[in-house]
């Protein structure tokens, strides 16, 4: 029986061109950038973690700069958009519980993100800080006005600065997640959905006590 003919491939085209291969490469990049930073992440290391050749990384992304761009645009930006969507359409109200849950659930679904934030956004000189600030400004920039509106309506305390209230809100949500490995070791605060929901209830209760007006 004659051997079956195989279709010829164009030169340079990888044999495995499935969509999940690009996903694997971005998954590997997200983990490595969280561990080693952008500067410490090489295309060779991404290839090893994704179990492909470095040439395949070049085929999909062309170089490290475009790989980092794809990480930001295709992984980080959608998480911010998800949180922004959860906060949009709330009018002038400040639904603390919805905001806290949106952030913590987004972090729980993207465990690779907190290490990246710690290394490449929160630290001085972080490679991704300028782009991240530009990305979150439309989402967070509206919160002071909404807090001020809540103060005018009597729902929120009038003796707090709306801008500093946003700082407190973000600190209460982001810091416990970014410092999660420390809290797990020191206080046995475990990860997982149950831990996320418990943390969300706690943060919401603390923020309500500090921000919401008390009525006789």
Short description:
With 216 residues, the protein is mainly α. The chain has helices at residues 19-36, 43-50, 54-61, 64-87, 96-109, 113-122, 129-140, 143-153, 162-178, 180-187, 193-211.
Verbal overview:
The chain has about 220 residues and is an all-alpha fold. It has a domain at about 70-210: Tetracycline Repressor, domain 2, CATH 1.10.357. The chain has helices spanning about 20-35, 45-50, 55-60, 65-85, 95-110, 115-120, 130-140, 145-155, 160-180, 180-185, 195-210. The longest helix has 24 residues, at about 65-85.
CATH topology of the domain at 69-211: Tetracycline Repressor, domain 2
Rg for CA atoms? 22 Å
**Span of the ends, CA to CA:** 91 Å
Give the CA-based shape.
elongated
Percent of residues in beta strands: under 5%
Q: Kindly report the average pLDDT value.
A: 85
Determine and state the CATH class of the domain at 69-211. Answer: Mainly Alpha
- State the helix count: 11
User: Main beta sheet: strand number and arrangement?
Assistant: none
Total number of beta strands? 0
* CATH H level, superfamily name of the domain at 69-211: Tetracycline Repressor, domain 2
The stretches of 5 or more residues where confidence is low (pLDDT under 50) are: 1-15
Helical content stands at 55-70%
Q: Topology as H/E string? A: HHHHHHHHHHH
Structural class: mainly alpha
- In the CATH hierarchy, the architecture of the domain at 69-211 is Orthogonal Bundle
């Amino acid at each position: 029986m004659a051997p079956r003919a195989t279709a010829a491939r164009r030169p340079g085209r990888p044999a495995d061109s499935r969509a999940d291969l690009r996903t694997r490469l971005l998954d590997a990049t997200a983990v490595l950038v969280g561990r080693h930073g952008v500067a410490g992440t090489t295309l060779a290391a991404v290839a090893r973690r994704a179990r492909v050749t470095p040439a395949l990384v070049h085929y999909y992304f062309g170089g490290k700069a475009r790989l980092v761009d794809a990480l930001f645009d295709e992984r980080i930006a959608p998480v911010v958009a998800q949180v922004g969507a959860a906060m949009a359409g709330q009018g002038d109200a400040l639904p603390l519980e919805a905001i806290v849950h949106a952030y913590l659930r987004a972090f729980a679904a993207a465990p690779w993100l907190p290490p990246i934030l710690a290394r490449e956004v929160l630290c001085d000189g972080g490679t991704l800080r300028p782009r991240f600030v530009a990305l979150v400004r439309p989402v967070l920039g509206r919160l002071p006005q909404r807090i001020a509106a809540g103060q005018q309506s009597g729902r929120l305390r009038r003796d707090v600065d709306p801008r500093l209230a946003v700082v407190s809100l973000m600190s209460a949500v982001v810091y416990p997640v970014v410092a999660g490995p420390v809290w797990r070791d020191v206080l046995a605060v475990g990860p997982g959905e149950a831990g996320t929901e418990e943390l969300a209830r706690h943060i919401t209760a603390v923020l309500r006590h500090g921000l919401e007006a008390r009525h006789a």
